[in-house]
Amino acid sequence: MMKRLCSIILAAALLLTGCAGSPKPLRAKTSVTQPPAPSPAVDGALTDMGLSLLAELRAKGEENPLLSPLSIGLALSMTANGADGDTLAELEALLGGEAALEELNAACAGYLEEYENLGGSTQAAIANSLWADPGGLVKDEFVAKCQDIFRAEVFQQSLSSPSIVGALNGWVSEKTNKLIPEIIQKPFEKNTAVLLVNALYLKNKWAVPFDPLGTYPMDFYHQENAPERMDFLNKGETKMLYISSGDVQGVVLPYDDGRLGFFALMPDVSYGLDPFLADQTGASFSALLLSAEETMFLRLALPKLQVEWSGQLEELLPKLGVELAFQRGAADFSQMGDSAEGYYISQVIHAAKIEVNEKGTEAAAATVVAAPSGACPPPEEGGTLILDHPFVYGICDLNTGLPLFLGVFA
Question: 282: which DSSP letter?
């Protein structure tokens, strides 16, 4: 699906389901504030998760999936604070690699702190929320962790009532600046106990904008399809950050905040998009992004993008190693609530949008829980890069290589 230029929106939803019991007041009494701290292990794990999900979605036949590893990671990290035993170990491995829960929480607190305080003209907002059913028996200690570490807003509402549809959609729409006006269409099942939701919004301007007079139609060559006539942004005779490694070349376009940038990586046709994704790890992909060198470009041409994607991830995450969390009776979320029959994840809903134009990008995300070697030297006289066949793109942290948004345009 497609959305407007300079805009990315992502939404993911994760449902935790358990046996409803007697109503219990939802009050957080315990303060467990986690000091923010950077974690290369968490950065790498979230990047690896995003790449793996992208590859799995492509394997399912999705042409242009779009995800936010950051949004999914924050929602699942809230969820991990309710897990214990092997269920927690699987979530730690997915979200933190070698990092344990304490380091994962500190990294998440760091993302909230750093990305909401960017310079330049960037508008950034990260919001989390916890929605508890009155009969969900959610523990005060779990609520306190979500509030203190993730700054989560807490709501108590019947999750099987029709009113949850307008309430949740309204919250997501507000936090994503209306880029995701709807994340659910109907109430949840009666045994749904908790919703854990993340919403991420970004609006960025290029450090050096594209001239609107330089935008004109060109052919984009989709995989196994006839060329499509599209508007392309064009820039020439200027220095930009160029990526070249083996059969892959690309560009990084910084925003005026000095911290984030838009990237596009185009494998050679002989290599192919899907083999490229399959060959990447979180570490190698981030290293590829960070390998960009300032180069004189004779010409850069990039399609104006409007991409929108939504779908379910609960069938894909077990393929990434998180199996127990989705198995009723086997999942251990004993740190989350007091239901005698326990809790398990029943759904992970994800939606994303992006728009790329002459001025910059706009992005939003929401999540609800029911090194390349031997890079080629840049051309001495100036390079030409025309992104007219399938490529991987997104928004990344220029300091760490973490992709906040990650998509395929094929």
Answer: H
> How many C-beta atoms surround the C-beta of residue 30 within 10 A?
13
Structure confidence by residue, pLDDT tens digits, 231-250: 999 998 899 999 999 899 99
Sign, CA torsion 141/370/368/51: positive
> φ and ψ at 174, to 5 degrees?
-65, -45
Q: Which of the two residues, 83 and 3, has the higher pLDDT score?
A: 83
Q: Nearest 5°: phi and psi at 333?
A: -115, 45
Which range (47-51, 101-105, 193-197, 337-341) has the least confidence? 337-341
Q: b vs e for 86-96, b when ≥16 Cβ sit within 10 Å of the residue's Cβ?
A: ebbbbbbebbb
Cα 324–405–308 angle (5° rounding)?
95
Residue 58's alpha-carbon distances to 273, 349, 395, in angstroms, are 10, 17, 20
Residue among 381, 398, 359, 365 at smallest CA distance from 176: 365
As given in the structure block, the two tokens for residue 384 are 């030409």
| Burial status of residue 225 (CB atoms within 10 A of its CB: 0-12, 13-18, 19 or more) | exposed
Q: 171 vs 147, 164, 200, CA distance in Å?
A: 17, 10, 12
Name every residue whose Cβ is closer than 8 Å to that of residue 383 and which is 6 or more positions away in sequence: 242, 295, 296, 297, 298
Of 378, 210, 377, 380, which Cα lies nearest the Cα of 301? 210
For residue 273, CA distances in Å to 39, 266, 353 come to 29, 8, 21
User: Residues 302, 3: contact at Cβ < 8 Å?
Assistant: no
User: Whole-prediction pTM value?
Assistant: 0.90
Mean pLDDT, residues 360-367? 73
373 has pLDDT over 60: no
How much is the average pLDDT of 133-155?
A: 95
Residue-wise pLDDT for 83-132, tens only, equals: 999 999 999 999 999 999 999 999 999 999 999 999 999 999 999 999 99
Residues 224, 5: Cα–Cα separation, whole Å = 25
Cβ(255)–Cβ(298) below 8 Å: no
Name the DSSP letter for residue 35. Answer: P
